[in-house]
């Protein structure tokens, strides 16, 4: 699956043309450094274009920093979409970059990175320096600097806390890095951000609101509908009445649980994060970007797929489509294998405590040296004193006092103004159970959903009431204290002799062969694809999160651990895979080689279709065509495409071609063209 091509940063003539045109499509794909000023910029920097003889191009910002250049404070070259090369390429350098972006070096160091990749530290450093212009430590340093800048500009955290949250081992190292990379001090960087009004959204020690850039066009509605149609109540939720305007889910992060809500905007995606430990900021942002495929290059996809005369009308009707990703490898694999039992197994997940009742800055006065120290201690104590949650099935009566931990201070022991207050002492009682948006019924090819349902079924889904710690299956309201109801037989959910990810052939939606006018009228009849203007008025199934409720309140549960799934009454294959995940025998992570991961899944008894699906979503592999997917085959039949021959012309963007064919099947099932 590896794709070999000349890196764009080595083509100096092409790079300089992009700089001259200030083409934003190349932001994140290479870095321009100016010898006369000693700064590095993104290709679309609005400053005066330097002379060609005075510029040098680098593959990463870390390479430019290693060359002695500092970041441009006007164009902020690190605040751009990531390079799509890390998904297109499957070599060592690309896999290392995915793990470094996930914060692995901060957690396990270079030895841990080398161990995950299966190389020695020396060989890894040699390859990264040759390919990317910097070693693993320099690349991780650039990643820490970017995370620190986000926290400095987007939060009110004391700078000391920012240093450790960004992954620096000392305040001195933090100050030196900021000065070297941005040619300013952390306090000056924060002062500039306040003057420029970059902190328009309220942020606290545990709640952050960020702007995630992407390369336009971006079909946000399509990717949100995909995730919503497979959502598990309590773990995921949606927002919006007539159309999806937001999507949220809980996260298992290295240092504690978290949650995220995303709201697409015309030029960015607003990302609201709730974190237990701020050290997980970089990892959480990276996972959300993979979930929505924000680092994709839609222009490159359109250029290849639009050249296919049969597929071109669909590509033109829905520009900027994305391949949905995943936030956690074990979760994706288990949900795929569980099928429709995933909804019931999800009730075994740990309760998610949620955010603080209010910002830390409101709990402690924001003036004085003593207060800053108190805020620092309060922020660090959050991880040590997690929020208390109600046990499964327990409903707090209205007006009852919150259940505080045994070590929580009493009312008569609350310190006076200016003294530290531990965050768990100020938490509110769990609020009344919010209504969770029960997303669309899954398409017949969906993974982790009941087989046989039509894609984007127009039937309204049943209203589901979520109780803290106890999320009911779809279509059934579980009363407090009710236990999960698993199938009597492990195989009652699905025939595991067939592909775990797809339904039996008898459950597939039958699409009639294309008529004479079906292909010629595709462009006009697909004008209301998800994401288009006409589709905005189509009702969205499921009950949205009420406007008066915080969207985060709808996220109550974490997906169960592999250990919990292995102990549940699941099918033998699922139990075997969950056990392998729990003991570390099987480790699906973003740094895996696609071919090696696929072979390992096949050797564990997983069928090829499911293995391809996991590789595509977990690793973001752009060249995986799911030919066993009924929706892909039906979409190909509608257009009269022979997958065996046409797929060769779609490389390396076959995954995106599959997504277009899925959309086509959705339109066919709705009867929007014949």
From TrEMBL:
A Gene Ontology biological process term: methylation
Gene Ontology molecular functions: DNA-binding transcription factor activity; methyltransferase activity; sequence-specific DNA binding; zinc ion binding
Residue ranges annotated for the HTH araC/xylS-type domain, each copy included: 94-192
Naturally occurring in which organism (per UniProt): Amycolatopsis jiangsuensis
Protein name: Methylphosphotriester-DNA--protein-cysteine methyltransferase/3-methyladenine DNA glycosylase/8-oxoguanine DNA glycosylase
PANTHER family for the chain: ARAC SUBFAMILY (PTHR46796:SF6), HTH-TYPE TRANSCRIPTIONAL ACTIVATOR RHAS-RELATED (PTHR46796)
Positions of region (Disordered): 351-552
Compositional bias per record (Low complexity), positions renumbered to this chain: 372-384, 423-437
